[in-house]
Design brief:
binds adenosine-5'-triphosphate; RecF/RecN/SMC_N; six-stranded mixed sheet; Rossmann fold; 15 strands; flat; alpha/beta; Helix Hairpins; binds magnesium ion
Length: 698
């Protein structure tokens, strides 16, 4: 892998950055917090996304900036150019990976998966454990536990493919073994005897039985034919008899209908006769009523009485009016009398000295005269009253006599009203009778018609009887024919059933033959497959052995090769102080010889252990770069010099420069300013308050 260019927007302290990577050894220098690690981390983020960064996903976006965080990386791998872009927006992350113009993957997750599985063929942890050394993680590789470290090395160097192939071969062998077992079990019957010869015998037996059944079917078919013929004859005979019977039933119906009609006509005739007889009686009654009503004088008498009653009523009204007048006159004279008497009394009480109440002059000697006049008037008024009362008495007597005349007339009226009501009832009845009698000619006409109809019904009945008698129908012969037909039909369905049953049996026998045949074929196929599977099993066994041998051959070479590389590099880094390491082929753990004895890393100083780890990491990268097929020409080292003294730092730089020639691209990040002068390419990063990280190529 060769990095070509990097464009960053808003990644941590880097607001805007665009660089082209040089070949060979590149140093990135700058003070603490300048943005060195951020620049490298942006590369890892573009490749692997969130898991590859040291913080939460959102924390990579520059604080206080709302524009998207964006990294665009161009690199070469295996002779082809790739372009990778990852963009973090507030709501989502997008990513795109392309080879030339061809889009290889799209989407944050998809791009990471593509890089892991198909492009670099390592996950981000292996990436950080081998070619990309993160700040403070120099010893990550030696500190890994045995099994993950073995897996990481084997995956990095492609040995895991051989191992996987071996495992697949083993699995195939296992599957084939199971299959063979299954196939072999198909050749054995439940009782443990071989299945094939038994099936052959059974099939022959079944075929024989089927042939016998085919033969047995012939007489059954002949029987069905005979029964079908007989049934046809019986049906024909039956149809003739039945046609005759049908005619007879029709004639019977006609006779019954004629009888019914005759009965009905007789009943109607009787009814009509009765109605007519009745009207003769009514005629008589009407004649009697006519003479009775003509003789009645009740209405005339009642009219005369009403006149008399009117006269009496008028007299009574006049008497009442006279009484009214007399009562009024009596009352008026009474009032006048009282007034005069009061007047007289007043004058008596006032005496002669007083004033006249009417003319207001002193009464004096006129008083006595006045009083005499008033007494005369009172006398006259009393006389008048007596006369009026006598007149009223006379009037009362007259009224009483008139009232009793009225009462006598009332009694007479009651009697006359009864007579008149009886008369009216007779008239009403007479009207009804006359109305009924008006229909008499019509009734007579109807009677004549009904008589004719009855006669016609009688003739029809006689004709129907005659027709029935003419038909020669024998119910017993009819019943016999029906029975005969049923017997033949039953025989036919019995023959059909027998043949059907037989055909079912034959079909089942045929199925049995087919099933047995199929079973035999299956067994014979299994026999053939067993041969093939056995040959295949042998081939896979061989393949598994070969792969196993191949893998142990490679791994047996890797550990010594890696140890030789590391030893050389270590001798150079430590100026010959340490010259030999030992790498365990089973888990790639590292031991360093001090004198004749090999020690694990915890026995050495921190700086020494860092130097060993660096030597091992660089050797792995070297080995990767040398491996045919994978071009892993990149080594990234973030702050690996911190624990080394000046001499060792110089040695490391010398070693890296040499390494860059074979590996291709080596990027060293450090805050140690002094190394600037020893490097062919240097980028200096400075943190500017306004613009964020600023890059200067020296
Ligand atoms: N999201 C962010 N937005 C802005 N600045 C950030 C963000 N995340 C981290 N920083 C700051 O960016 C600066 C650069 O950090 P970085 O780790 O790249 O520095 P460095 O150059 O590697 O320093 P050192 O030499 O100490 O390792 C730091 O000051 C850090 O606090
Ligand atoms: Mg840093």
């Amino acid at each position: 892998m060769r990095l070509r260019s990097l464009a960053i927007r808003n990644y941590r302290s880097i607001r805007r950055l665009q660089v082209e990577f040089p070949e060979g050894l590149l140093g990135i220098v700058g003070h603490n917090g300048a943005g060195k690690s951020s620049l490298l981390e942006a590369v890892a983020w573009a490749l692997y996304g969130t898991p590859a960064v040291r913080t939460r996903a959102e924390a990579v976006a520059t604080i206080g900036v709302s524009d998207p965080c964006q990294v665009r990386l161009e690199f070469d791998l295996g002779g082809e150019a790739f372009r990778l872009e990852r963009v973090l927006k507030p709501s989502s992350t997008t990513a795109e990976l392309a080879r030339g113009d061809e889009l290889l993957a799209e989407g944050a997750r998809e791009v990471s998966d593509y890089v892991t599985e198909r492009l670099l063929r390592m996950d981000y942890q292996t990436f950080y454990a081998s070619i990309f050394t993160r700040q403070g993680e120099l010893d990550k590789f030696v500190n890994m536990s045995s099994e993950p470290r073995r897996q990481a090395v084997e995956r990095l160097l492609g040995i895991s493919d051989v191992r996987d192939a071996g495992q697949r071969a083993r699995q195939q062998k296992r599957d084939l073994g199971n299959r063979l077992e299954g196939l072999r079990s198909q050749l054995i019957a439940r009782d443990g005897e071989p299945l094939q010869p038994r099936l052959v015998t059974e099939l022959a037996e079944l075929r024989e039985r089927s042939a016998a059944l085919t033969k047995a079917g012939k007489p059954l078919e002949a029987a069905l034919e005979t029964a079908t013929l007989q049934d046809a004859q019986a049906v024909k005979a039956w149809e003739q008899v039945e046609a005759n019977a049908e005619k007879y039933r029709t004639a019977e119906k006609r006779r019954d209908a004629a009888q019914g009609a005759l009965k009905l006509a007789g009943e109607r005739l009787q009814n009509a006769q009765k109605t007519l007889d009745n009207s003769y009686k009514k005629e008589k009654e009407a004649a009697e009523l006519r003479s009775a009503t003509a003789a009645s004088d009740a209405p005339g008498k009642l009219a005369a009485l009403r006149e008399k009653q009117a006269t009496v009523e008028k007299e009574l009204q006049e008497l009442a009016a006279g009484k009214g007048k007399l009562d009024a006159a009596l009352a008026a004279s009474g009032r006048e009398l009282a007034s005069e008497q009061k007047h007289l009394q007043e004058i008596r009480e006032l005496g002669a000295e007083s004033e006249c109440p009417t003319c207001e002059r002193p009464l004096g000697e006129h008083g006595a005269a006045l009083m005499g006049r008033i007494a005369d008037e009172i006398e006259a008024l009393e006389q008048q009253q007596r006369e009026t009362s006598a007149a009223l008495e006379t009037l009362a007597q007259t009224s009483k006599a008139t009232d009793s005349r009225g009462a006598a007339l009332g009694k007479q009226e009651e009697k006359l009203r009864g007579a008149e009501a009886a008369h009216a009832a007779q008239l009403a009845r007479l009207r009804d009778l006359e109305q009924a009698l008006a229909r008499k000619p019509e009734l007579e006409q109807q009677l004549a018609e009904l008589q004719a109809r009855e006669q016609a019904a009688r003739t029809e009945q006689e004709a129907a009887h005659a027709a029935l008698a003419k038909l020669e129908f024998d119910p017993q012969a009819h019943a016999r024919a029906r029975q005969q037909r049923e017997v033949v039909a039953a025989a036919l369905s019995e023959a059909k059933l027998a043949l059907e049953r037989h055909r079912g049996e034959l079909a089942r026998a045929g199925d049995g033959v087919k099933a047995k045949q199929a079973e035999l074929e299956r067994v014979e196929r299994a026999q053939a497959q067993i041969g093939e599977a056995e040959a295949e099993l042998e081939r896979f066994g061989l393949l598994e052995q070969l792969l196993k041998g191949f893998r142990s051959h490679i791994t047996s070479r890797i550990a010594p090769t890696l140890a030789a590389h590391t030893s050389r590099r270590l001798a150079q880094l430590t100026d010959g102080r340490y010259t030999q390491v030992e790498i365990d082929g089973s888990d790639y753990s590292l031991k360093v010889f001090d004198g004749v004895e090999a020690h694990s890393l915890d026995r050495f100083s921190g700086g020494e252990a860092d130097a060993f780890s660096l030597a091992l990491r660089l050797s792995i990268s070297q080995l990767l770069a040398e491996r045919a097929g994978t071009e892993m020409g990149l080594v990234v080292l973030d702050e690996v010099l911190g624990s080394q003294d000046e001499l060792r730092q110089r040695r490391v730089l010398e070693g890296l420069e040499r390494m860059a020639q074979s590996v291709g691209q080596v990027i060293l990040v450090t805050h140690i300013e002094s190394i600037k002068d020893h490097l062919p390419h240097v980028w200096e990063l400075v943190l500017d308050d306004e613009r964020g990280t600023v890059l200067r190529e020296l």
